[in-house]
Amino acid sequence: MEFYELLEQWFARNGRDLPWRNTRDPYRVWVSEIILQQTRVEQGRDYYIRFLKAFPTVGQLAAASQDSVMRQWEGLGYYSRARNLHAAARQVVEAGKFPADYAGLRSLKGVGDYTAAAIASFCYDEPRAVVDGNVYRVLSRCFGITTPIDTTQGRREFAEMADMLLDRQRPALYNQAIMDFGALHCTPKSPLCSTCPMEAMCKAREWGRVGELPVKSKRTAVAIRHLVYFILEEEHGCFLIRRREAGDIWKGLYEPLLLEMQHEADSDEAMAALGNWLSENAGAWGEEVDLHLKESVQGLRHQLTHRLLLADAYRVRARGCDAERCKAPEGYRWVSRDELVELAAPRLVNRIYEHFGMAE
Ligand code: SF4
């Protein structure tokens, strides 16, 4: 039996019934594929349903504000996905129709080879093989490919192999089958080799090298950043926040006053840094304000792909400061507590609000 037949047989018995599998609407499939980049299926499913409830059509997504799109994405991470989705929805509306083939899909913002192949095959039966982490793993193990997957040579080799193996009569079925097989059966840590339909042909199994494949050439260094947040509250219960801009993580999300340190800072050092910052950035009131530390939380950890964020947060009362008289420093503004928790924020910031009992 051919590789694709074994896969499709396996899929007929074990494939997952997922909400985006019951549609060939390219908008819905596209939303699901963008959500599923970097997100587990179980978590992605709820976001998918909520996102489509908020924006049932590409036109409604295009017409929405960036804040409302970010709000729906809140907690999913990798926020550039949401910004690209929003920008691409506007591209589609401007063009007047959804792209109907791989090349057209590939021209949308945030749509790479994998996503274009997925939409083109699932919605239009175009014979395009998907290559994602699951596919790398299955192919490298089954066919004994030891070329590192994070090299140009590796990417080319795997793409050619995937294209050669594709079931050209049923590309949608085949692509779903290989992705599910990688996600459920040939898993990274505990592949189910003894019940595997590919066992007789699997090179990694024959060589006893299952755990070593696929090969990566380098490990990415993880940088540590020390963040210190200040929930700065003026006399009438308003808080200082800003919207994060381009050039760093979390663009478009909102956060309280943030000072980034070179090293871990204790509370005396943090409060001194806040005083200095206000006197340099807030004008006259920043020099006179009486800062009163109410509560704090230290040592929050937040892992991103290439960064470990270590965060402390301080809830500080700015005595003698009121929002009407005291102009917010550049880039910041005063907001009520309701607005503060309503605006889309990074998960780390929401954890801080929760810690201080502000999220209810
Ligand atoms: S035998 Fe094991 S390693 Fe090989 S394809 Fe099957 S599950 Fe994966």
* Strand coverage percent: 15-25%
> In CATH's first tier, which class of the largest domain applies?
Mainly Alpha
User: Low-confidence spans: pLDDT under 50, at least 5 residues?
Assistant: none
The total count of helices amounts to 16
**What oligomeric state best describes the polypeptide chains here?**
single chain
Q: Please outline the major beta sheet.
A: 6 strands, mixed
Number of domains: 2
Bound molecules: iron/sulfur cluster
Shape, please? elongated
CATH-assigned fold name of the largest domain:
Endonuclease III, domain 1
Rg from Cα: 25 Å
Total number of strands? 6
CATH superfamily of the largest domain: Hypothetical protein, domain 2
How do the SSEs run, as a string of H and E? HHHHHHHHHHHHEEEHHEEEHH
Helix content: 40-55%
**Strand arrangement in the largest pleated sheet:** 4-5-1-3-2-6
Query: Which CATH architecture of the largest domain is right?
Result: Orthogonal Bundle
Average per-residue pLDDT, rounded, comes to: 93
> What would you call the structural class?
alpha+beta
Distance between the first and last residues' Cα: 58 Å
